[in-house]
Each structure stands twice: as C-alpha cells, then as structure tokens.
Amino acid sequence: MAAVVDLITYPVKGCAGTSVDSTHLTTAGLAHDRSFMVVSVDGVYRTQRRDPRLALVRPTVSADGSRLTLASGEPGSGHGALRLDVTTSAPRRDVDLFGATYQGIDQGDESAAWLTDFLGTPSRLVRVPPEHDRKTDGLTPGTSGYADSSAVHVLSRASLAHLHTRLAERGAPALAMDRFRPNIVIDSLPEGCQGEQAADWAAEPHAEDRIRRASIGAAELGYTKLAVRCAVTLVDQEAGARGGPEPLRTLAGYRRFSAGGVVFGAKFAVVRPGKLSVGDEVAVEQWGEAET
Q1: Bridge partners (DSSP) listed for residue 136
Q2: Which of these, 215, 210, 206, lies nearest to 265 by C-alpha position?
Q3: Euclidean distance between CA atoms 204 and 45, whole angstroms
Q4: Interior CA angle at 13 toward 259 and 32, to 5°?
C-alpha cells in the first residue's frame, strides 16, 4: 500500500524542518508549518536562496504554539538556544512575500538579535496573525501561512530514487530528501497488501503528480499544482551552504515544465483537516493527467 513514511513541519519559513510521528493537519498545512518567517528590517522575507545559513536554524514550537525555540545546527558555533514566549497581541506590520503584502506580528528584539548575529545580516522574526486570511491558487483553492504557495508539499521516495539513478548516470552523488523540503513523504509498503487489490502506485516515480484527491488519516488533500524547484535545492541543508549545480542540472534534463522551470513533487490544499500519522495509508480518490 501507499503510506506516509515521514511528516515534516517547518515552523520558521526557510529554516530546518522537524520530523514528527503524528500531527494535526490544519487548513493552512501541518500544525505550525511556516507560521513564522524571518524578514529584513524592511519586512522583506528571507530565503535560503540568498541566506543559506537559514538551513542551520533549528526551530521547535510547543504543541499549543505558545513557545518557540531557536537553536543552532552548526557545531561549535557558540550560539546558544533562544526560547521565546510567542506573542500574538503585538502590533501588526507589513511583510513582503514574493512581492505580495501580508501582515506579521513582530516577535521582539531578542529574537531579532539572535537571528541577526547568526545570519550576519539585520533580521526580524514575525508570526502569522490569527486573522491571517491568505488565499492560495491552483486547481484546488486553499490557504496557507508563509509557505511559498500551497499548504502541503508531497513527495515520494520513488521520485527521489529515480533522481538518484539519473544523478549516478552523470557521476553525481545522491542527495538527501531534505533538499526538497517536503511536508509529506510517501512510499510503497508491503503491510496491508491484499494480492491484486493492492495498487503499487507509490513505487512509480512522480505518481504524486497525478493525484487529484487523496485521503490520509482523517484528512483530505486536493491537488493544486506541481512544485517548481528553485535554487534552494542547491543548498546543503546540513552545511547551510550552496553547493554545485545539482539537482537542478539533472532535473532540467527530464523534468522541464511546459509553463517554465523544472518540477519535482506536488503541492496540495487541505480539503478536510484532521490528524495525520506516519504509517497512514494514502488513499487516492481521484487521479488526473500529469501537467508536465
């Protein structure tokens, strides 16, 4: 059967993710996913494209969202962990995300000083306001916090394995799944299979591109668009530094999108919130043709 093998939430946009065994899927994505964002003093979002050291920031958030911890993933950096009481009552400020203006709640000078020192550039930390009402586009409309677009990014191990085959043909090393920063990783597992009734679709590379509706645990997802990849995939997430041309060079050879760019993985909106757990079956209720 096709099942969830990893769930990753990214509390602070652009920073490291945290794998969880189970979580609640809200209308805006996995609980607390991209609910915080690092911005310049002018309110412009920071991204690993320009600030790859964001990958070394290890954020964790309490279950109720009231406490945030920022820790360094850089051995010997000397940056101690910072623990914050999250505020949702501070004044709102304008923040820029891909040229669109949203609101953010500044989390204070202490977090700003920690991030400024760690990243080496003046920075502030903002949180999505409770009244945040962002509309996301695509085949299935939805909402999200500070994610690039849709609420949930799905990627299969089969797609990554196929990329590894292509990389090996070029003499390039395999890359970790975290280069692509998915929320839900799926794979084909033997448990629960019943002969011919067990469709092994998750063993097919890029099958996620064709999913239009899927139920996972108590939740339901609706397809929005393919995930167009950018220079973030060039950043080694453990080193916090940009590497060579892979995987974009290899993806450009077989995953070019007709609308522009290269694609890897698929984006989804949340049709029905609910609990998700590693091991949950991914039951596809509607298939479509891949947009590539």
Answers
A1: 142
A2: 206
A3: 36
A4: 115
CB proximity list for 15: less than 8 A, separation 6 or greater? 38, 54, 55, 57, 58, 59
For tokens 């990753």, the residue is 8
Helices (H), the chain: 109-119, 157-169, 248-251
- Cα–Cα nearest to 247, from 145, 155, 183: 155
Q: First-to-last CA distance in the chain?
A: 25
Is pTM beyond 0.85? Reply is yes
Question: What mean pLDDT is predicted for residues 109-122?
Answer: 98
Q: How far apart are CA 290 and CA 262, in angstroms?
A: 14
Q: 135-184, pLDDT tens digit by residue?
A: 999 999 999 999 999 999 999 999 999 999 999 999 999 999 999 999 99
Distance CA 275, CA 23 (A): 6
